[in-house]
Design brief:
It is a single chain. The chain is of the alpha/beta class and 259 residues long. It has a single domain (3-258), classed as Spore Coat Polysaccharide Biosynthesis Protein SpsA, Chain A. Strands 1, 2, 3, 4, 5, 6, 7, 8 and 9 form a nine-stranded mixed β-sheet that branches. Helix 1 (16-26) links the parallel strand 1 and strand 2 (32-38). The chain has twelve helices and nine strands. The longest helix is centred in the last third of the chain and has 20 residues, at 217-236.
Length: 259
C-alpha cells in the first residue's frame, strides 16, 4: 500500500534537515511527501533544490502552498485541504514537519490503515515534561472508554481520501491559528462511524519548540475560540460519539493475527 505524507509547513524550515532524511529512508516506491507551505514556499523550495534535488525531480517530494505570509495566522486547515486534493495516493498520512519518525514507523502504521479507519500513531514530545500527554496515552491504552475524540491529533494520523471527503475535509473556520482542527476532524470521522485505531509502535518524536507548541498570547486567544467550536460539535453530536472505543494495536497484534 502506497501513502502520501502530508506536511503542513509554517516557519519550521530549521527542522527539515533533521526530520526529512529518516522519513525518506522509510518511504517505498510510489510514496510521496507533500510539503504544504503557508507563506514560505520559496524558502522551502530552495531548500529542497539544494538538499534533495533528486527527490524533487522524481516527485518523491512536492512543494506547494502560498508564497506570501497571511495577515492573520496559520492557515493550517486550508493547507490540509489543498494537500488532500493533490495527493496521488488514496491513503494519506498527516505528519508535522517537526516530527521525527522512529524505526519501523511506516511499516507499523501502514499495516493498520485502510478505508473505514481513522488511524493515530503515538506522538512523543521532545524536551517536554510529558505530564498531561503521558496521561492521555495511558488513557488511550488502559481506558478506551474515555472521550475518544480528545485523543485525535494530526501530527501522526492516517485516513483515506474517500473518508476524508465524506466528512467534508478540514473545517477552515478554524484557520487564523493552530489548535483543535485535528481534533475536530477526528471527531467528525468518529461520529460518521469510522473505526478509531491507536497504533502504539508507530511513534514520532515531536521536536519541542516552546513558541509554536504553547503559542503566544494571540495564538492562545485563537486556541480558546477553536476549542469552544470543537466542544460545541462534541456536545451536538454526543449521541454518535458516546460509547465509541479506541482499538489499541501494535505490529505484534497484526503478526499474530496474520499467522
Amino acid at each position: 500500500m502506497n501513502i502520501s505524507v502530508l506536511m503542513p509547513h509554517w516557519r519550521k524550515l530549521e527542522f527539515l534537515p533533521r526530520t526529512l532524511p529518516p522519513l525518506l529512508a522509510q518511504l517505498e516506491e510510489d510514496d510521496e511527501i507533500l510539503v504544504m507551505c503557508d507563506g514560505d514556499y520559496n524558502e522551502v523550495l530552495l531548500y529542497m533544490e539544494e538538499n534533495h534535488p533528486a527527490e524533487l525531480r522524481d516527485k518523491v517530494i512536492k512543494v506547494a502552498g502560498y508564497c506570501l505570509k497571511p495577515e492573520g495566522a496559520y492557515r493550517i486547515s486550508n493547507l490540509m485541504n489543498q494537500g488532500f486534493s493533490i495527493a496521488k495516493n488514496e491513503m494519506v498520512v498527516t505528519l508535522a514537519p517537526d516530527c521525527l519518525v522512529q524505526e519501523n514507523w511506516r511499516r507499523n502504521l501502514v499495516m493498520h490503515i485502510g478505508r473505514g479507519k481513522l488511524v493515530i500513531g503515538r506522538v512523543d514530545i521532545e524536551g517536554l515534561d510529558k505530564g498531561v500527554l503521558q496521561d492521555v496515552r495511558i488513557m488511550a491504552m488502559y481506558a478506551p472508554q474515555v472521550n475518544i475524540a480528545e485523543l485525535c491529533w494530526g501530527a501522526n494520523m492516517a485516513v483515506s481520501k474517500q473518508d476524508f471527503y465524506a466528512v467534508g475535509g478540514y473545517d477552515e473556520s478554524f484557520d487564523g491559528g493552530w489548535g483543535c482542527e485535528d481534533s475536530m476532524m477526528g471527531a467528525k470521522m468518529i461520529a460518521m462511524g469510522l473505526e478509531y485505531v491507536f497504533v502504539i509502535d508507530a511513534p514520532v518524536l515531536h521536536c519541542y519548540h516552546p513558541k509554536t507548541f504553547f503559542g503566544d498570547s494571540a495564538d492562545n486567544g485563537i486556541l480558546y475560540r477553536n476549542r469552544m467550536m470543537y466542544y460545541e460539535f462534541l456536545w451536538s453530536n454526543w449521541d454518535k460519539l458516546r460509547g465509541r472505543q479506541v482499538k489499541v494495536v501494535s505490529s505484534f497484534d497484526y503478526e499474530e493475527t496474520d499467522q
